[in-house]
Amino acid sequence: MDNPLLVLADHAASWRERELPPEVEHHARRALLDWFAALLPGCLHPPATLLAIALASERGTGHAICYVDGATSGLRHAALLNATASHTVEFDDIYRDAGYHPGCPTIGAALAAAQAQRATLRDLLRAMVAGYEVSCRIGMAVQPSHYRFWHTTGTVGTFGAATATALLLGCDAPRMAHAIATAATFAGGLQQAFRGAGMSKPLHPGHAAEAGALAAMAAAGGVTGALDVLHGAAGFAAATSEDSGKWEKALAGLGAPLAIAEMTFKNHGCCGHIFAALDAVRELRAEHGFAAPDVVAIHVGGYSATKDVCDRPAAATEQEARFSTQYCVAAMLVLGGVRLAAFTPGNLANPAIRAIMPRVSVSLDPELAGAYPARRAANVTITLADGRRLFRHQPTRKGDPDAPLSDAELSEKFRELTVPVIGAPAAAALEQQLWHGDALPGAIRLL
Question: The whole model's pTM is what?
């Protein structure tokens, strides 16, 4: 087997000179638009707001923009704060086959690097493509066993940030390889951080963005890494998965299709492992016309992460609610959707939602578990007060590559999330720039 790190580094470095085909550019712009949609509401919430205050004395100087407080700073500072904010409201993109949110760490670091380097928007988009491709492929190599203990966005995200930043810093293939190698030993992020209370989870992509940027800056300056660190006996895959990595599978067809063209863009503001169940409940209600008080019981059969991560019948905090099938299904029935409004203090205490939660149960469906991570399905049975039992097999999730959000739906999501934060005129101008502009996004004033 060829050294996977060198294969990935050669591919990533090739994007320095590659043409950006129109269809690839369009997919990258979709990802950038979606990242800003997740970022801006996160700029108003902890932990990013608290982190900005805590690290104010370490801001440094530079041209990278910290959207959390609107000030400029050095590359790593902006990457940390922006990537953290972009993961807070759980609306960030997903690469399904790796169980991974590439946008937060990759774009968080890449945009800061592009602003620091006074690069062009096309430079940024090429760096995003390379960062998504490398990190998503590494994620595929270590899944699904990696997800037992590790938060992929914190671990694998470090590679996306390192790759994108290294490209923007002008690294050739050898230095790109050293950036990826050094990133491997910085990677971290534990599952337990989001199985209970606390603010650590959004810090995972924040750390990944900063650590990946550091790895790239070090490599650009001549610092070397261990080039067998991905597949070696004591390397990244061996340490964080059941074997030394499924590298042949992960590298098959490298660049065709590109990972950035196969993204899931979230249609609900919660953990993606609940999405199929929410889609099934929405479709059953639309078909049969029942209301929340009519529901006696709801059973969700899901894959491993649906059961292990999202079976939370007693969710109390906002973070717990975003990872609770019981809460999110109840919110879908009561509110008609699971967007930002579902996680306000008022709705977290909403008696109508709380009344439904004990009626929702979750179990592991062996057939669905066997198809994970390539498929994210759910089997949902709803029992109504009139005795009807309604069943739906939901084979995929709205927003997945086989059921994608249209450009219009993505824009609608962008406006819904950003207008309350920056106002309609500023949101419209940013949307136009991200879809059609040539200049890098600049400073944005929060309301």
Answer: 0.95
For residue range 302-349, what is the model confidence (pLDDT) as tens digits? 999 999 999 999 999 998 999 999 999 999 999 999 999 999 999 999
- Rounded-to-integer distance, Cα 82 and Cα 91, Å: 14
Same domain, 183 and 247: yes
**How far is Cα 125 from Cα 264, in angstroms, rounded to an integer?**
18
Q: What digits encode the pLDDT tens for the residues 183-208?
A: 999 999 999 999 878 999 999 999 99
Distance, in Å, from the CA atom of 310 to the CA atom of 386, rounded to the nearest integer, reads 29
Q: Which two tokens stand for residue 380?
A: 């949902």
Give yes or no: residues 245 and 126 share one domain.
yes
Following DSSP, what letter does each residue of 298-327 receive, concatenated? EEEEE-HHHHHTT--TT--SHHHHHT-HHH
Buried b (16+ CB within 10 A) or exposed e, 225-235: bebebbbbeeb
Asked whether residue 294 falls in the same domain as residue 251, the answer is no
Q: Report pLDDT digits (tens) over 82-128.
A: 999 999 999 999 999 999 999 999 999 999 999 999 999 999 999 99
Residue 122 burial (CB < 10 Å; 0-12/13-18/19+)? middle
Cα 110 from Cα 139, distance rounded (Å): 19
Cross-strand bridge partners of residue 72: 65
The answer on 278 and 233 residing in a single domain is no
Name the DSSP class of 404: P
Quote the domain boundaries for residue 168: 4-261
